[in-house]
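Comment thread on ticket #2218

A.B. wrote:
> Attaching the input chain for the structure job we discussed in standup.
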Amino acid sequence: MSMSFEAYMRDMVQPMRDELTRIGVTELRTPEEVSEALDNMKGTALIVVNSVCGCAAGQCRPGVAQALQHEVKPDHLYTVFAGQDKEATAKAREYFAPYPPSSPSIALMKDGQLVHFIQRHQVEDRSAEMIANDLIGAFETYCK
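C.D. wrote:
> Ran it. Output below, let me know if you need it in another format.
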C-alpha cells in the first residue's frame, strides 16, 4: 500500500488545521473564498496564516486560542494555510501590504483595512502568552 505525498500531507496537516477550526476559525481554502470573505468586509477580522513550523505549533496557534478567550474579539475569524492552500494564502497576503510574506503570521483588519500585523519574527521569539496579550491589546483597540 503506497500513499501519495498529497494524501500524506493532508493527514499530517489536518490536526494543525483542526487546532484553529475547533475554536471557531473558518478556513479559507481558495482565492475565491478569501475574496468573498475580505472584499468589502465590514467590521473586524482576524486572519491567521497557519504553518507546519514549530513556532506555529508552540506559539502562534496557542496564542490565538488564548486571545480568543477574551471578551472583546473580532467579528470574523479566518485562516489560510501556507504551503498547503498556496493560492488562498497568496490571495490573503495581498491584503497584508506592505508586509512581506510571512508564516505563521496574524493580521487584524477593520472595515477592509489592515490595522495590526504580527510577522513570523514576532512569533518566533515570543511565548504564546505574549502573542495572546499582543492580540488582546489590538482587540481592545480595534474591535470595540
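A.B. wrote:
> Thanks. Noting for the ticket: The longest helix spans residues 5-21.
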